[in-house]
Amino acid sequence: MSESNSRFSDDAKRLCNAVGMTQWVIRETGETDRRWLAVQLYDGSTDGEVYYSKDDAVRHQKFPWLCAYLWVPPTGMSVAEAETWLAVWRKAKQAGFDTESDRSYITPLTIEGISSHLAMLGK
């Protein structure tokens, strides 16, 4: 493990690996329509499946309210981004946001947007 990775949680590393594996599967199969992951908020794990839609991901979870749903970006996700994504969704869930609905909270992709949303959720 590199020094820079040692400061990140195992949860973030687990999520980053799942995103990397998903990208590999997309590249190898050419199946670009399947990009949704159901991410367990308590440990950053997934069920190992890649879904066509958020609805599919929600429907296949035994406890969908324990997950947040990630559309895997074409650029992938660094460990730092995974750490931030998990932090935002955990705070959002604690603040009462619904992760399962179509109108659920959308994580901003800029550093400024993430910082402002983390500040808002911390209140």
Count of domains: 1
Strand content: 5-15%
Shape: globular
- CA distance, first residue to last residue: 35 Å
Low-confidence segments, ≥5 residues, pLDDT <50?
A: none
Give the neighbour order of strands across the main sheet: 1-2
Series of H and E elements: HEHEHH
In terms of quaternary structure, the protein is single chain
Mean pLDDT: 84
Radius of gyration: 14 Å
Number of contiguous helices: 4
Main sheet properties:
2 strands, antiparallel
Specify the structural class: mainly alpha
Work out the number of β strands: 2
Helix content: 40-55%
Written account of the structure:
- The protein has 123 residues and is mostly helical.
- It has one domain.
- 43% of the residues lie in helices and 8% in strands.
- It has four helices and two strands, in the order αβαβαα.
- The chain has helices spanning 10-29, 54-59, 79-94, 111-121; strands at 36-40, 67-71.
- A two-stranded antiparallel ribbon has the order 1-2.
- Helix 1 crosses helix 3 and helix 3 (79-94) runs parallel beside helix 4 (111-121).
- The protein is globular.
- The protein starts with 9 loop residues before the first helix and ends with a helix.
- The model has no long low-confidence stretch (mean pLDDT 84).
